[in-house]
Write a structure and sequence with these properties.
Blueprint (H helix, E strand, L loop, with lengths): L12 H9 L8 H14 L4 H6 L1 H7 L5 H4 L4 H8 L8 H21 L2 H6 L7 E2 L13 H12 L7 H10 L3 E2 L6 H9 L2
Parallel strand pairs: 1-2
Amino acid sequence: MMKKRCDWPGNDPLMIEYHDREWGVPVHEDHKWFEFILLDTFQAGLSWRTILNKRNNFRKAFDDFDYRKIALYGDKKVEDLLTDSGIIRNRLKIAAAINNAGKFIGVQDQHGSFDDYIWQFTEGKTIINRWNKITDIPSVSKESDLMSKELKKSGFKFVGSTTCYAFMQAGGIVNDHLVDCFRHSEVDQSTK
């Protein structure tokens, strides 16, 4: 018998693998958080499918999402990225990724880890939603509004509330798997 899952991965094997293994699983590692910030920055205005299909290219182009290296990128590296057809070649998003790497380090310095900082918006707990259909799932929440406001105050770019909500979904701060999806209860168990 086939497993029942959320509709959004469709028949795309890469999207199914991401849905089944990563989406909604609580993240507690700063390196992974930065990967999601960078990818969500580039997703703004685009589909997650587009970004996921280019994820390995982003990993290669951005030094395996090493925020300490990325924070030091200069003009030559920016020009190299702008000619890399494997990624989204958007000057503003590239500049935001570099900027955000520096701000990420600043948050770590101030809070001990980015993980400690980002989980404060839900008091360290996953919000477990109980949606019946994909149209029930919001694109923002009061937590993503606050997260966006605070990240912007810290100098981050491309961190609107919708981006923050997607970031929360990816990193397991919210469990937005539909209740009849096999991952809803699995992810719920991983948060206990």
